Amino acid sequence: MEIGNRWHKWKEILGGAVGLGERIGMDDETINNIAYRLGNFFANNFDPANEEQRLMKELWDEGSEEERKTLAALMARVSHKASIRH
Question: One Pfam family of this protein, by short name (predicted)?
Answer without folding.
Answer: DUF3243
